[in-house]
Amino acid sequence: MRNLFYKAIILFLVGGFVMSCADNDKPNYQFMPDMYEPIGYEAYGEYDVFQNGQEAKLPAEGSIPRGWMPYDYENTPDGMANAKANLNNPLPYTEDNLNEGKQLYTIYCAVCHGDNGDGQGILAEREKILGVPSYDDAGRAITEGSVYHVIYYGLNTMGSYAAQTSEEERWKITHYVMNLKNELEGGEEIPFEEGKEASIAEANPVEVERAQENAEEVQGEGAVTGEEEEQNNN
Ligand code: HEC
């Protein structure tokens, strides 16, 4: 009986000695490693199973970012003529849209085109840039479509504003430019359209759905509001 008692103590000591070598920071012995090691791929990792050996793929052809709509008219004289004849402003002509258009116009366009659109902006006055037309130039006969097209692609020495502005902002600027043209021509004040959806998003059911989805997704993330996310997308 006593013998058994000593044996138990020795077994306990040896056991304790062996256990003390275990390192809790490392995984234990793995019998079936496949069950432990995931085969998920690291973002941007190199793996032979993929084409080009790259985990990161290019988007499928024809995919577009959320909230961004492709612009169908080509950057050619034909494309411009086509936009000039067929493209219309989807935003209603409201006081808000016009005022926002004015702000954006003052930021981006007035340096060359002048506050009233006569082509006498500060850069034109100082001859830093030549050939800035007045918006009532009869030979150009600008339309909503042609204005949007020129903001999107630029024209000769005028650069493109597609990177600085969203689709909606470009249409607001367009409203303001057409308003300036009308003033230069001495036309009667254009009446505001009321009671219509005030933005492209509101006029487009798909956009409304997206905006709701976005709002649900970001709920709880605190800092990001739906509006900010829309700006990021653009
Ligand atoms: C750096 C100076 C400059 C700025 C800034 C600028 N433009 Fe222009 N814009 C020009 C010049 C120069 C032309 C004449 C281009 C030509 O016909 O070769 C022009 C032409 C135009 C035309 C006439 C296109 C036609 O149908 O012939 C419109 C409309 C126009 N700009 C709108 C805008 C708007 C809107 C903005 C702001 C988003 C803007 N521009 C900013 C220099 C500028």
TrEMBL record:
InterPro entries: Cyt_c-like_dom, Cyt_c-like_dom_sf. Residues 1-22 form the signal peptide. PROSITE patterns: CYTC (PS51007), PROKAR_LIPOPROTEIN (PS51257). Residues 208-234 are annotated as: Disordered. GO terms for molecular function: electron transfer activity; heme binding; metal ion binding. Residues 96-181 form the Cytochrome c domain. Keywords: Heme, Iron, Metal-binding, Signal. Coiled coil: none annotated. Pfam families: Cytochrome_CBB3 (PF13442). Transmembrane segments: none annotated. This is Cytochrome C. It comes from Salegentibacter salinarum. The lineage of its organism: Bacteria, Pseudomonadati, Bacteroidota, Flavobacteriia, Flavobacteriales.
